[in-house]
Automatic annotation (TrEMBL):
Name the UniProt record assigns to this protein: Unannotated protein
Cross-referenced SUPFAM superfamilies: NAD(P)-binding Rossmann-fold domains
Record Pfam families: adh_short_C2
Keywords, alphabetical: Oxidoreductase
PANTHER family: 3-OXOACYL-[ACYL-CARRIER-PROTEIN] REDUCTASE, SHORT-CHAIN DEHYDROGENASES/REDUCTASES FAMILY MEMBER
Alphabetized GO MF terms: oxidoreductase activity, acting on the CH-OH group of donors, NAD or NADP as acceptor; quinone binding
Organism of origin: freshwater metagenome
UniProt family annotation: Belongs to the short-chain dehydrogenases/reductases (SDR) family.
GO terms under biological process: fatty acid biosynthetic process
Amino acid sequence: MKDHGKIDALINTAGIVGPSNTVVEDVNWPDFEKVLQVNLYGAIWLTQAVIPSMKDKKYGRIVHLASIAGKEGNPGLSPYNTSKAGMIGFVKGVAKEVAPHGVVINALAPAVISTPMNSNTSEETLKYMISRIPMGRVGQPEEVAEIVAFMASKACSFTTGFTFDASGGRATY
């Protein structure tokens, strides 16, 4: 913020999967904590950094990439599920705090998307996730980008605290 003076939109796409195909009792705490630090704490810290400037301008758009795992959970991914569910709850609460100041904050919950982040996800876990998608395929980055572009635009002016869906029909709520 010191270098640029203002920010109109924050689009947080940082995220890691962490341990996959691992039941909760076998996840060690440092691995769990690392996923929380990147996925959830990172979202919190970024939001805290930009809100003062956005409130001063009475305008801002904040978009956090959550996950369908935060809405429905996936077996063997408890750290990831937890971090993304926490992010969704964080967005809902912060939206109520900043809405009177012209700041809109939303999340996007994609299903599995063809990105490098999924390169270390086990084949078994990927097959399971795709089997839950009625369209029967992974999403493409361009499909997510179109939704994010709307969420970060002035056109997204009366929706805040919402979790948009990009799940190929997996989640219909």
